[in-house]
Amino acid sequence: MCWLKANIENKMETKRLEKQIGYIFQDKSKLENALRHTSYANEHKVDSNEKLEFLGDSILEFVSSEYLYQTYPNLKEGEMTKVRAAVVCEQSLYQIAKEHSFSDFLLVGRSERASGGNKKPAILADSVEAVIAAMYLDGGLEPAKRFILDNLKKEIELATKHVGLKDYKTVLQEKLQEQGEVHIHYEIIGENGPDHNKTFEAEVFIESKSLATGKGKSKKEAEMQAAKKALENLT
After folding, report:
1. What does the pLDDT read at residue 115?
2. Other beta carbons within 10 Å of 215
3. Fewer CB atoms near the end CB (10 Å): N or C, the chain?
4. Can you list the pairs that 223-229 forms with residues at least 24 positions away whose Cβ atoms lie under 8 Å?
5. Topology of the domain covering 168-234
6. Is the torsion defined by CA of 210, 153, 48, 3 positive or negative?
7. 202 φ/ψ angles, rounded to the nearest 5 degrees
8. Cβ of 154: how many Cβ atoms within 10 Å?
């Protein structure tokens, strides 16, 4: 009876997430696999979502690259690379996960859950990549592509707004200096995770006033995300 109850609850949760992401899986086990963090998989001796993350990362890069190529024919190769790097990052994927309440469905181990692992940006971002791969394996490229573009199109448009596609730090510097000389600086205010998979958090200041924070897999990416957030706050 306990198994039956758990099975029914699991199916209900799956349906709720399918509604959130706008795709009904033919094979529900693919979605379930995409939601299993390594910590949960190790405890329960099942497959984790790591391989799906790997595949999802490649699909994400391909779809965003194709969209940039087809939608912005005047962009140079280096400019497209900058836009893609700004958009396909942990912070953007974390925002997608938050929008679709992934933390409600993510399966993490007991100790990981106790430390709020199901709400950690890096884990949630990885789960988005895994779900993208699960969509691709279940229904082909189209549903995965639709999900990616539905959730990232605005981010891409924002990233391509600025003439010459200067990086966010440069754009922020120029925007703030329109009214005169100002001192802008960045500080790394935190880092989490093992050496091979660290997440950094940066904060951008004008003089001594904080403008925004951002996270990334490198210090440079974290600073870029902080600048991007500051620009969004200013517009």
Report:
1. 84
2. 23
3. N
4. 223/169, 223/186, 224/86, 224/167, 224/168, 224/169, 225/89, 225/91, 225/168, 226/186, 226/202, 227/167, 227/168, 227/169, 227/171, 227/172, 228/86, 228/91, 228/168
5. Double Stranded RNA Binding Domain (3.30.160)
6. positive
7. -120, 155
8. 11
Q: Are 34 and 133 in contact (CB under 8 A)?
A: yes
Q: Residue ranges per domain, the chain?
A: 2-162, 168-234
8 A C-beta contact, residue 194 and residue 138: no
| Residues listed for the chain | 235
- pLDDT for 2 equals 33
Active site members = 57, 129
Highest mean pLDDT among 63-72, 163-172, 196-205, 216-225: 63-72
CATH fold, domain 2-162, is Ribonuclease iii, N-terminal Endonuclease Domain; Chain A (1.10.1520)
What's the Cα-to-Cα distance from 115 to each of 108, 156, 190, rounded to whole Å? 10, 33, 17
Instruction: Give residue 121's identity as a one-letter amino acid code.
Output: P
- Cβ contact 127:37 at 8 Å: yes
Three-class SS state of 193: coil
Predicted TM-score of the model (pTM): 0.69
**How high is the pLDDT of residue 6?**
36
- Identity of the residue numbered 57: D
